[in-house]
Amino acid sequence: MTKKKQKHCPYCGNKITSKKEGDILRLYCPFCKTYFYENPLPVVSCIHSVSRKILLVKRGNRPYKGKWCLPTGFAETGESIESAALRELKEESGIKGKIISLVDVDSVTSRYYGDLTFITFEVEQIGGKPEAGDDATHVKYFPIDRLPVLPFKSNVKAIKAYIKSKVDYWAIVDSFNLARDEDEFEQKKKHFLSDRLIDVIENNADLIAEKWVKDVYTKRSTLSYRKMDKEEVLNRGRKVIIQFGHWLKGIFSDKDNRDFYVEMGKRRKNEGFKSSEVISALSLIRKNIWEFALSQGMWNKTIDIYISLELERRMMLFFDKAAFYLTRGYEKE
Question: What is the rounded end-to-end Cα distance, in angstroms, of the chain?
């Protein structure tokens, strides 16, 4: 079924014709000398999600009867677009909502209704409960990665825009939840957002180690390192950096690190290093890894800032324990 064209003047009943107003051809009544403006109809939709599941309703009327879609309907005369969206949400799904943000605006042409403007909002539930109403027969939350085929392309476009706007936020939430449990943090060395920096750090271990060597050769807290061959110092720094990357990947366990740094403490004591010098050198490695990570453009977006903070926290856990085990090595020796 297609939209029927207006043939008669609603005021005088005579046949209407077409006439240009400026450069636009419009419907016109020569008897009333009146132009008729066929503007796009405003259509509102709502995206309400819970735990990354989006609320959809099954349509009970034409068009697309029996198909799933967002709570969608026409704005009425005398109401704002926001009020129309919340009204449709309540009428079709039983949910009383609050507008969070504008998600998308789309222009489409429907054979059934003509030109339409779809306005889609993200909404938050403040009352009610999910239950089909108005022209809907069912209400259901669908996971964002398992949505049914939606008949309205504007719904599909809006949902894609919504998901895109949430990707970074969801990634941060996932990574934060993974790291939230202090007791299990070190056993979860995978699927962190900062994992994307691991290969970058390992692949640039030589560059980071070279910067570290410059530090230990100039700091008063690491005087003994000046007596060593520079290549040997470089190798020692590189080894710690690679091991840090392996720990982040889960290749090295906490026991591996404990054994490594306890043994390092014993060796450094036998070599005549003060424990304060070795701990200072370890701290300088941490500093140079952090500075290198920040040099990779880690302040461009909110998610980059979170990655930086997450990496810093993981570094703190690694190097604090490394310093502790180094000290144990000195004590045992």
Answer: 90
CB of 235 closer than 8 Å to CB of 296: no
* Residue 245 amino acid letter: G
Mean pLDDT of 285-293: 92
CA distances from 254 to 44, 191, 246, 333 (A): 55, 18, 11, 21
- Tell me: pLDDT of 37 over 90: no
Q: Is the pLDDT of residue 298 over 70?
A: no
Asked if 318 contacts 257 with a C-beta cutoff of 8 angstroms, the reply is yes
Nearest to 288 by CA among 215, 199, 218, 193: 215
**Cα 73 → chain centroid:** 29
Of 45, 150, 166, 145, nearest in space to 102 by CA: 45
Which of 169, 170, 175, 168 has the alpha carbon at shortest distance from 191? 175
State which amino acid sits at residue 27.
Answer: L
Structure tokens at 3: 């939209």
Q: pTM value?
A: 0.64
| CB neighbour list of residue 208: distance below 8 Å, 6 or more residues apart | 201, 237, 241, 285, 288, 289, 292
Asked which of 34-48, 116-130, 251-265, 302-316 is least confident by mean pLDDT, the reply is 302-316
H/E element holding 214? helix 205-218
The residue-averaged pLDDT of 302-320 equals 84
Q: What is the pLDDT of residue 177?
A: 67
The CA distances from residue 292 to 67, 193, 210, 223, in Å, are: 53, 17, 12, 24
Q: Catalogue all structural domains in the chain, each as residue range(s) with its CATH number.
A: 1-38 (no CATH), 41-176 (3.90.79.10), 185-332 (1.10.490.70)
CB 206 within 8 A of CB 197: no
More confident residue, 181 or 276: 276
**Nearest partner of 264 among 281, 251, 286, judged by Cα:** 281
17 sits in which H/E element:
strand 17-21
Express each pLDDT in 109-131 by its tens digit.
988 788 999 999 999 999 999 99
DSSP run (H or E) holding 108: strand 95-110
Q: Which two tokens stand for residue 195?
A: 């994992």
| Residue whose tokens read 């180094």 | 326
